[in-house]
Design brief:
The complex is a heterodimer.
Chain A (H helix, E strand, L loop, with lengths): L2 H10 L8 H16 L15 H31 L9 H9 L18 H7 L7 H22 L15 H17 L3 H6 L13 H10 L8 H4 L8 H13 L3 H14 L7 H7 L4
Helix pairs in contact in A: 2-9, 11-12
Chain B lengths: L4 H9 L3 H23 L2 H17 L10 H19 L19 H20 L2 H11 L5 H8 L3 H19 L2
Helix pairs in contact in B: 1-2, 2-3, 2-4, 2-6, 3-4, 4-7, 5-8, 6-8, 7-8
Classes of the chains: A mainly alpha, B mainly alpha.
Chain lengths: ~290, ~180
Amino acid sequence: MSDEQKISQRYRELGREEPPRHLDDAILAASRRAVRTRPAPLVVPTGRRRWYFPLAAAAVIVLAVAVTMHVERERPDLEVAEAPATAPPPPSSAREEQAAAPAQAPAEPPAATPPPEPRAKRDLYAPDPKPAPSQELRAQRDAERLADLQKSQTAPTSPPPAAAPAPAPAQDAISGARESVRADTASKPLAEMQQAPAPVPQAKPAAPMREEARARASAAPDKVPAVAGALGGFAYASPEQWLQGIADLRRQGRHEEADKALAEFRRAYPDYKISEAMLEKVEKQK
Amino acid sequence: MEAPDEELMLAYGEGDAGAFETLYKRHRGPLYRFVLRAIKQRSSAEELFQEVWIRVIEARSRYAPQARFTTWLYTIAHNLLVDHWRKKGLTLVQLDDEPAVAAPDNPARQAEARQSLARLMQALEALPAAQREAFLLHEEAGLTVAEIAAATGTNEEAAKSRLRYAMAKLRAAVDE
């Protein structure tokens, strides 16, 4: 028998302690609770319940048909109103005739008439230099509707502005939102973060570890951690980025958030080994 | 033939509570002893033991069998142990006064066993934390040197060295 085997044998003689029963029960109960919180598999309903789905589906179909018919009925009003004003585009031969004899089209001044060009190119690439009467009418109606809508929205709360500001380009709006998110996650003070619509929940009073653990285990594992908001979403990019985010929070003095984020990280990556250097950054220094 | 641990863990991740129960029964004893002998304070050991399993439960949907389940399980335990030691200011907790051991019927053997046990336990207690952990991972979890290295986040040479030193010190204690 080798020395190693001898030590092993002696070690086995030390005793075979087992976890107490209450611990087994608690862990197994937690494991079952955790699985029960998952969505239940679809089962075949029986009795009256089996009619729920067909009835619901039928109701949805009827509703969809009704809405479609309503929309179809509404649309002709617009088209009918616009139809007389809409002149069908002249056939290519007529255009050629117009181009050949400008005197036959007195309604349009010669200066506004663009030089004739091939139909395909004009239709595909170039907008009409002058909108057709129906487009003008539609644009006018849209403008009126928009004005009515703006009036109805602004009237109860505040008088309409003297001059409507020019709408900001969409790109500006997106970059503005990004900036605000960045500002929220990077430089916003903690007090302001707490006033945000979806603040990070405050730390609850310290509870016994086992109770907390039990409650945690029964929670859904895929649930977005509460700190994800505080971390600005990078919590899911990679463990390294997550840790870097925690280190940033720590550097900014946001220790409470950093603590929560670190705890969340440990739960998400229980087997991840944090290097000593990173540990110094993410853990609160005493 | 029994289902491998990895399959059971995947099955649990898909909602099979029975798979977890089987897995738990396989590993509860060795893991409990590993934790108990690593930190030597029963109440803390029980909390840590429970926390390891809670982490396993929480990570069920993210589990991917990249290594043996045992290695993964003891990696989690190692991380929690490191946290525990850090909270204690990197100092080891003292041994419980009364060692838990099944007492033999024969009084002479009982005394001898107690002496042997005491020596071994003292030697185990006296080991540096890393060496003791390597020894316990080898004895309780049945991990190889490579797996010990993986679980503790070190290289194989260091793991081998820790295990060798631990064995040498324990052998010296037993041979006394």
